[in-house]
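Tokenise the fold.
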Amino acid sequence: MEILTLGGLSIPIFTLMYTFIYLLGYFIFFKNWDTKKKPDASSCLISIAHGTPVVILSTYANFLHSQTPQHHFASQNTPFQTLVFDFSIAYFIIDTSHYLIFTPHDHLFIAHHVAVLYVFITCRYVVGYGGFAILVLLMLAEVTSPLQNAWSLARYRKDEVVAAARVYRGLSPYFYGVYTVVRGVFGPLFVYKLVVFYLNGGGDGVVPFWAWASWMVVIVSAILLSMLWVSCLWLNLFKERSKMRKLS
């Protein structure tokens, strides 16, 4: 498989693609949904279009491509890795726009998306090194995407559709469990190895201190927020199960 070359137009092309998918969801797939839920469902749709594909693309870019980089946290970004970054940058641009337009009060998600964009843009366009490790983290972040989006769509409809409520209740503990293990175990372990690598001078001469230090701040903050979020979900689940036992 040869490297795709889009003549420097990859971000505009991918941005148009995500915009089309979002509008497809808003005006066709979810057109009969509640007005307040249509935007969120459309956001899930572009997340589906990004999540699993970017895991596959990142795996291919890091481990299978003919121009496979050195498995080194500070190795130079390959052309295919930069294409994967552009694919994700476009997604985060559209999803950030969604939040700014429909839920501007959701400051945490907006800050998260802006911070992720900062990491991707600086790694891809400013530093040009370190993409291998960032894409591994992206794989870990998005591997739960299918479960999360199925859970989210069911949650939006659980009060209106019996089948959605059943899916939501059945899927919740499995989604929370997988998410907790990936974000709370594998993610921190990899970040620990990455921090040790940079503190020992592994990126000296190619990845400047300001870059890797700021990346680590963003990544650690994202992990902590993820764990806070899923902890709240677990707490709500235990409360709901406790209420149901008392009523039965």
About this structure: Helices lie at 10-29, 38-64, 79-102, 107-127, 131-142, 145-157, 162-199, 209-247. Residues 147 and 174 are 8 Å apart (CA to CA). The longest helix spans residues 209-247. The mean pLDDT is 93.
